[in-house]
Amino acid sequence: MQTFTIKSPLDMHLHLRDSEMLRLVAPYSAEAFAGGVIMPNITPPITTLEALHAYRKRVLEACGNHLFLPYMTMFLKPYEESFFEEAAAHIIAMKLYPAGVTTNSEEGAKNIDSLEPQLKAMEALNIPLSVHAETHSPNLFEREQNFLPILEHIAKKFPKLKVMFEHISSKEGLKLVADYENIYATITLHHMTLTVDDLMGERLNPHLFCKPVVKTESDRDAVLEAALNASPKVMFGSDSAPHPRESKESASAPAGIFSAPAILPKLVEIFERHGKLDNLQNFVSDNAKSIYGINPPEKFVALEKSEYRVPSLCKNRDTEVVPLFAAESCLWGISSVE
Amino acid sequence: MQTFTIKSPLDMHLHLRDSEMLRLVAPYSAEAFAGGVIMPNITPPITTLEALHAYRKRVLEACGNHLFLPYMTMFLKPYEESFFEEAAAHIIAMKLYPAGVTTNSEEGAKNIDSLEPQLKAMEALNIPLSVHAETHSPNLFEREQNFLPILEHIAKKFPKLKVMFEHISSKEGLKLVADYENIYATITLHHMTLTVDDLMGERLNPHLFCKPVVKTESDRDAVLEAALNASPKVMFGSDSAPHPRESKESASAPAGIFSAPAILPKLVEIFERHGKLDNLQNFVSDNAKSIYGINPPEKFVALEKSEYRVPSLCKNRDTEVVPLFAAESCLWGISSVE
Lengths: 338, 338
Hints:
three-stranded antiparallel β-sheet; TIM Barrel; about 350 residues; alpha/beta
């Protein structure tokens, strides 16, 4: 039996939500990964250390016996500069949401320049800036591209600030990452596999609706290539973002794709198909360790080449979520975790 | 009270479905319009005169006491040429769906060539060709544009064939209509009012998902302008296309917007807002009469300027459909029909 083992896989962009949903989805990530960057956009968003510690505790409880280190983040706000010194030890990054662009981001930054003192403090303390890089401009397909000048502005003005371009989805975005030493990117499973035609080329599948929206074939191919080559500037971040099934299958579906149950089997399958398995360790762990300067728990996740079927539905008593690649077969499945 | 009266409004592209759905939706169109072009894509599609007569009878029954003339169409297939002579008296057009075409425009043109004897017969008998002008190419936003060379090819090869470019949705498409004497277009209410951001700029609304998909602001503005100016080459065709609510609010939503309950109130509101009320009679009736050479029943539909609320849901015993502009207010409502 062919096997492939990943050491300490990391998911550098993860939504675990809260309460019942947290308890449902956390085990999928906690089993397969050694750690993950936990997004702060729960309700209310994480804006105090008290809230952060309490949320971290709930996350760890939901992970059960799995060895999984949650790297916590906070919502970037006009905090006092002294607050960053206090927070630095407890967070891996501050998350910047342009107001309103994604789930629970209504409180996000309305004007980046007004956050200059905060960005300066973060630069000095080596706290990375994690960015949902989209404007509010009309035509959602162009919002990432329209945000690039803002990223450029930040990268130039704060050359020692590490800027994390999250869930990168466009070829223009990837060019920017290559052009600036202090801009890095996370890449999701869905942006390396899907186009807008998967979302709605024939029928419309709301479970494939996310922000940034999946784009053209050439964007998808550029993102896939960046992942396969595993340049030191990019790393895996799933942006796995569950919503209850009844909310996704409604007249007003929120953005977010729940990919957690499919990730490692699909990544191994994709990297193998392209003859790039040698790069997967870098993409899904080592690059992130270097970029963030972290040392995650040692955990060996072995996959074997035998059919794994992604669940058609993930559910507990009160909550149902439809995962990415629901009911589809993968060539590889997780066989052991040590 | 301000009033506005339209003489014999016509909906030149209408899906009435069958059975319970037909009985639910037909009265909305039959009340407000003097006639409509009834699309043949029921199950099974209309491909014989027997099926056509039987469907016409069911349509008329569903229209109840409303004065409404259904102009029938059939699926274009490789019928014997003699069949067109027989069919001519019973149909207003033959409908070509891109399933009969193929992935790219070059091959599409080749496939169209296989229908040459049929198109020639239609040209000789003055039977218009109604076209869903989209290829199957990847990126659904470009499918209409990719179909334009096929339309051009048909228009050139059969200069006396009237080609109806249905539910036109792009500025490039409108340019083609202007360039060819024998290409005409229908314009929907949704393509003159919505962009892709209405579909999924914030949350995703499957009730606004249709083919061709609603596009950018500049496409929407071009379509709106063409409607407002009511050039003799364009006419109103709603493409009102109901699907059951549970099917639209699912993991696999079909394309189609049910606009029938909102049409005339919204059209009067839009044309008035742009100071173009004088053009509405042409757009919603007279242009179609000239283009198709038809003489619909005389029917005067009066609207008055008092609030009309579009239903939040249209339902009968077994079927529920969410209409376009559900629960929204219009400045105008239908006050009398004579």
